[in-house]
Amino acid sequence: MMAGFLDRFFGTPKSAGSKEDAKSRLKLVLMHDQVDLTPAQMEAMKTELLAVVARYADVDREHVELRLERVDNRISVVSTVPVRRVTGRLAHAG
Amino acid sequence: MSECIVITSGKGGVGKTTSTANLGVALALMGKKVVVVDADIGLRNLDLILGLENRIVYDLVNVIEGECRMKQALIKDKRCDNLFLLPAAQTRDKNAVSPEGMKKLVSQLKEEFDYVLLDCPAGIEQGFKNSIAGADRALIVTTPEVSAIRDADRIIGLVEAAELPEPKLIINRFRPKLVARGDMMNKEDILEILAIPLIGLVPDHEDIIVTSNRGAPAAFDEKSTVGEAYRRIARRINGEADVPFVALEEPDSVWSVLKRWMGLTPTREVA
């Protein structure tokens, strides 16, 4: 009780509660509702994108990410494609 | 000038019917001539919340199908001279009414009433489409929960697609205690996500259970916090500007604050 009392007295900030989870999950799901791309279409986009990048660089296929994000009130497709190395020969191929 | 306002939500159980009943009462207490219409054909409930369930003879479908005159179907609330209910049919389904039928019904009601409040059924099917067809504007009811907010977002899109003006939001079952400890989204969080103007913030309170048990909406009770929240929404609906929100504004007395600090009372249920 004393700790509770002190917390209240000094207004110790509590750790972020579950509302942050609610908010971020909602934002994500609403974005997907709005864009209306199926998981299969998202996967297809990822595969095609990967194929393009792989023509120029040695891609770490295990760690490729593709997701929707809201940036400045705009929905963006954001992808992270880690590469092991960009070979000179491949890099100049295009 | 008369106006038809649809109270809708997408998700069921967030308080559409309770909100319609309370807003009807609050607007009528302001001296407006009001009819509340139960558009939930087959799942009639507004009558029960208003305590008028024993007085139904005819219903909305009877009126639309010409089986009775409008006046025969309207039920006058004895507690308030200028409040009327048009009940839903209980033994029919939603396809008994078409958007055109609803439009005609509403325009007939608008000739006689200042406000026509439509209690929309849950969902986005026929019943929703019928209700939207007759309305001049929409109020969206949500609770601070992920499922209700997601559905509200969908409904906002549909209301805008139907070319109604930008809808306004009622956040229902707000719990200041949970918000204070970060376990419930606050009104700013919800408005950031839904991006429409707020018209009401209604605290979660046992009054709602008690008043629906009795069929006497909280808006009749001058001392009820929930009733006060609805009375303020009614003032905003009627065009009054700068009506403060009820749930977070009441000042603490020195004693209540001290007691809470000492842990004598856990926290307040309603701010």
Shape descriptor of chain A: elongated
Distance between the termini of chain B: 36 Å
The H-level CATH homologous superfamily of chain B, spelled out, is P-loop containing nucleotide triphosphate hydrolases
- The total beta strand count of chain A reads 4
Question: What can you tell me about this protein's structure?
Answer:
The complex is a heterodimer of chains A (94) and B (271). In chain A, 49% of the residues lie in helices and 20% in strands. Chain A is of the alpha+beta class and 94 residues long. The model of chain A has no long low-confidence stretch (mean pLDDT 79). Chain B has one domain (3-261): Rossmann fold (3-Layer(aba) Sandwich), CATH 3.40.50. At the A-B interface, helix 1 and helix 2 of A face helix 7 of B.
Key attributes of the depicted protein:
heterodimer, A: 94 residues, alpha+beta, two-stranded antiparallel ribbon, 4 helices, 4 strands, elongated, B: 271 residues, alpha/beta, Rossmann fold, eight-stranded mixed beta sheet, 12 helices, 15% strand
Question: How would you sum up this structure in a few lines?
Answer:
The complex is a heterodimer of chains A (94) and B (271). In chain A, 49% of the residues lie in helices and 20% in strands.
List the helices and strands and how they pair.
The complex is a heterodimer of chains A (94) and B (271).
Chain A: H1 2-10, H2 19-35, H3 39-54, E1 58-59, E2 65-71, E3 74-80, E4 83-85, H4 88-91
Antiparallel strand pairs in A: 1-4, 2-3
Chain B: E1 3-8, H1 16-29, E2 34-38, H2 46-50, H3 60-64, H4 70-73, E3 75-76, E4 83-86, H5 99-110, E5 115-119, H6 126-134, E6 137-142, H7 146-161, E7 168-174, H8 176-180, H9 187-194, E8 198-203, H10 207-214, H11 225-237, H12 254-261
Parallel strand pairs in B: 1-5, 1-6, 2-4, 2-5, 6-7, 7-8
Antiparallel strand pairs in B: 3-4
Helix pairs in contact in B: 1-11, 5-6
